[in-house]
């Protein structure tokens, strides 16, 4: 089976590295990391990942806008929102917009893996 292609989007390089380190245990190919929404959309169009971890609060274009744009480009993409705004309304809004999973920062390794499993598990 081919590896799933994952794009990691977060304005914090530390968080990007942590996510990469935790999720590499899944059968994945990390096709890129982006620090802001504009870069994320550019990489998304180039690399065509099936999976994305997406921060909400970012420079340039915010995560909810990026989420909507990515889903317009590829309605099949699975997006997990990873955000410090662990207030429920933002997570719920992201899910309503089409995110498959949501995890608040700070997260534990187990929390991230669980949210990721949930995302890849619910295929349509």
The CATH topology comes to Rossmann fold
CATH architecture: 3-Layer(aba) Sandwich
Spans with pLDDT under 50 lasting ≥5 residues?
none
The profile of the biggest β sheet is: 5 strands, parallel
Termini separation = 18 Å
Q: In what range is the share of β-strand residues?
A: 15-25%
Strands, count: 5
- Helix/strand order: EHEHEHEHEH
Mean pLDDT: 92
Structural class, from helix and strand content? alpha/beta
Name the strands of the widest sheet in spatial order.
2-1-3-4-5
Structure description:
This protein has five helices and five strands, in the order E-H-E-H-E-H-E-H-E-H. The chain has helices at residues 13-23, 37-47, 63-73, 88-97, 109-121, and strands at residues 4-9, 28-34, 51-54, 78-83, 101-104. Strands 2-1-3-4-5 form a five-stranded parallel beta sheet, with helices on both faces. The protein is globular.
State the main characteristics.
single chain; 124 residues; alpha/beta; Rossmann fold; five-stranded parallel sheet
Topology:
Blueprint: E1 4-9, H1 13-23, E2 28-34, H2 37-47, E3 51-54, H3 63-73, E4 78-83, H4 88-97, E5 101-104, H5 109-121
Parallel strand pairs: 1-2, 1-3, 3-4, 4-5
Summarize, please:
The chain has 124 residues and is α/β, with parallel strands linked by helices. The chain has five helices and five strands; from the N terminus they run βαβαβαβαβα.
């Amino acid at each position: 089976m081919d590896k799933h292609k994952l794009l990691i989007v977060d304005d914090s390089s530390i968080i990007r590295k942590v996510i990469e380190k935790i999720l590499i245990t899944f059968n994945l190919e990390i096709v890129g990391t982006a620090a802001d929404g504009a870069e994320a959309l550019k990489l998304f169009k180039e690399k065509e990942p099936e999976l994305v971890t997406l921060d909400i609060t970012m420079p340039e274009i915010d995560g909810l806008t990026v989420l909507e744009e990515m889903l317009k480009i590829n309605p099949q993409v699975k997006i997990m929102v990873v955000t410090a705004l662990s207030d429920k309304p933002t997570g719920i809004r992201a899910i309503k917009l089409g995110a498959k999973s949501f995890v608040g920062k700070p997260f534990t390794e187990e929390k991230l893996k669980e949210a990721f499993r949930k995302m890849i598990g619910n295929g349509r």
